[in-house]
Write a structure and sequence with these properties.
By secondary structure, this protein is α+β, with helices and mostly antiparallel strands. It contains three helices and four strands, in the order βαββααβ. It is globular and about 35 Å long. Helices cover 36% and strands 38% of the residues.
Length: 89
C-alpha cells in the first residue's frame, strides 16, 4: 500500500529541520519503506515541509513510521497528513 505523508513545518523551525536532517535521512535509509521523498519549499525557496511516499502493509504501519521519524520526534511539524496514494505515472 502506498501512503503519501505530507507534513508542514512549524513556522520558524528551519534550524530544527537542518539539525535533524542527517538522522531523518538515516531513518529513511534504514527502514527501507520510502519510495520517494523530498522537502516542500516555500515562496522563499527554503525547506518548509516534507513529502514522503511510503510503501507499507497498511495505514497503521505508515502511522508508526511517521511517529518514529526523527523530524516528528524533534517537534518539527505543525501538521502531518497520511493519505493512501495510487501511483499512475
Amino acid at each position: 500500500m502506498l501512503i503519501a505523508l505530507i507534513a508542514k513545518d512549524k513556522a520558524g523551525h528551519l534550524e530544527t529541520r537542518k539539525s535533524n536532517r542527517d538522522a531523518h535521512l538515516a531513518y529513511i535509509k534504514e527502514t527501507g519503506v520510502v519510495t520517494q521523498a523530498g522537502p516542500l519549499l516555500g515562496a522563499d525557496a527554503q525547506m518548509c515541509g516534507s513529502l514522503v511516499v511510503l510503501d507499507v502493509a497498511d495505514m497503521a504501519a505508515a502511522e508508526a513510521w511517521a511517529e518514529q521519524d526523527p523530524y516528528a520526534k524533534a517537534g518539527l511539524f505543525e501538521t502531518v497528513e497520511l493519505i493512501q496514494w495510487n501511483k499512475v505515472i
